[in-house]
Design goal:
- The chain is α/β, with parallel strands linked by helices.
- The chain folds into 2 domains: about 210 residues, Periplasmic binding protein-like II (D-Maltodextrin-Binding Protein, domain 2), CATH 3.40.190.10; about 100 residues, 3-Layer(aba) Sandwich (D-Maltodextrin-Binding Protein, domain 2).
- Helix content is about 40%, strand content about 15%.
- The protein contains 17 helices and 13 strands.
- The strands form 2 sheets. Strands 1, 2, 3, 4, 5, 6, 12 and 13 form an 8-stranded mixed β-sheet that branches. The protein has a 5-stranded mixed β-sheet with strand order 9-8-10-7-11.
- It is globular, with a radius of gyration of 22 Å.
């Protein structure tokens, strides 16, 4: 069974609000325990309302392999990169793992969904790795799972690109010095890698003015001259190039680090500890979806078009995203390093702290045993 919540319109118009939610949440977590002195707070030794010793005695741990929970709420965005979750529902992979109800809930961005997972309002959320790194750096109870991690391409064309007007006089990345570039959110992964690309070409990224523009509005901003370039993603690259006056200047991620890992499914670490079998089952279902996309691209295109409410011809034109089911620590470490260089964090977590490992989820190769 699949239920969809949220709206595409909310996602497209509220990306900036997503970071605000995370900022407020991180600030709140940095303070003291506001409930400790509250008259409504129950003593630590008191059972929750409705709990009894009899009920507690009746609780049993699941047998080996049995799922601790059978209902899941998964936070996603209605974009192609998040399609494996939909495929796992539609192709019955979650059901075969023992899940009975899986709700895909559309959020406004990873930065908004991450605190919902930490608070328990979502079981799983797909978030940018950079957002997970920031949260983990702040000590939040959040870890990533390997399967279904969205990966940039290894060669052109990639799903992320900087687009310019053909008559702008901008013919190389170096020409972007002192220009205005549209990004969806400042401090986003697209902002980060656009800055890194500029540095690769000898441009001081601080000489550039970044302007926040939602992805669907970027092409219009470029055409009317509000910005000199846009750092955008598919399918909006495809839509922009329908205007014959626009062209791709560069593929940001390929200029910096081809094959970079961008986003993945994450959970509260406490949720994993309480539900190890369900965690492993979720990871297996997503892995099967990714493997199907790789072995049967036509099915992947059809499922992605249905999930994103797009025409199959558009998905075929832009190509399916790439995903991995195991993590190469080098990719994550490189991103953590860039985040530090560009002021997003002071010191990031070790990769082994960022990813959860069970018997069913292979640990990163550098993870030490014990």
């Amino acid at each position: 069974m699949i239920l969809r919540s949220g709206s595409r319109r909310g996602y497209r118009t509220s990306l900036l609000a997503s970071l605000s939610v995370l900022t407020l949440f991180l600030a709140a977590c940095g303070g003291g325990d506001d409930t400790a002195g509250s008259p409504d707070a129950a003593p630590e030794d008191s059972p929750a309302e409705g709990d009894t010793e009899t009920e507690a005695a009746g609780e049993t741990s699941p047998d080996d392999g049995d799922l601790e929970v059978v209902d899941l709420t998964v936070g996603v965005l209605p974009i192609a990169a998040h399609a494996p979750a939909y495929a796992a529902v539609e192709q019955g992979y979650f059901e075969e793992e023992g899940f009975e109800n899986v709700e895909l809930q559309f959020g406004e961005g990873g930065a908004a969904m991450l605190p919902l997972a930490v608070q328990g309002n979502l079981d799983v959320a797909q978030v940018p790795i950079s957002t997970a790194v920031q949260a983990r750096t702040e000590g939040l109870d959040f870890v990533l799972l390997p399967a279904g991690t969205y990966q940039t391409k290894l060669e052109e064309p990639d799903h992320t690109a900087t687009v310019v007007r053909k008559d702008s006089g901008i013919t190389t990345v170096a020409d972007l010095a002192r220009k205005t570039i549209a990004v969806n959110v400042i401090n986003s992964v697209n902002w980060l890698y656009n800055r890194a690309m500029l540095e690769e070409h000898g441009v001081d990224p601080d000489s550039v003015t970044y302007q926040e523009v939602p992805f669907p509005n970027m092409a219009d901003a470029l055409v009317n001259g509000s910005v000199d370039a846009i750092a955008t993603v598919q399918p909006f690259v495809h839509f922009a190039l329908q205007n014959e006056d626009l062209e791709v200047l560069a593929y940001d991620f390929l200029e910096v680090y081809p094959g970079m890992l961008i986003s993945g499914f994450g959970v509260a670490e406490s949720w994993v500890e309480d539900n190890p079998n369900a965690t492993a089952a979720f990871n297996r279902a997503i892995r099967r979806a990714v493997e199907e996309f790789e072995s049967d691209p036509e099915t992947g295109i059809a499922l992605t078009a249905e999930y994103t409410d797009s025409d199959e011809a558009i998905i075929r034109a832009v190509g399916l995203p790439s995903w991995v089911t195991e993590i190469d620590p080098a990719f994550v470490e490189q991103q953590i390093g860039l985040m530090g260089e560009h002021g997003m964090i002071e010191q990031g977590p070790a990769v082994e702290e960022l990813y959860w490992s069970t018997d069913e989820i292979e640990a990163p190769p550098t993870r030490a045993d014990g």
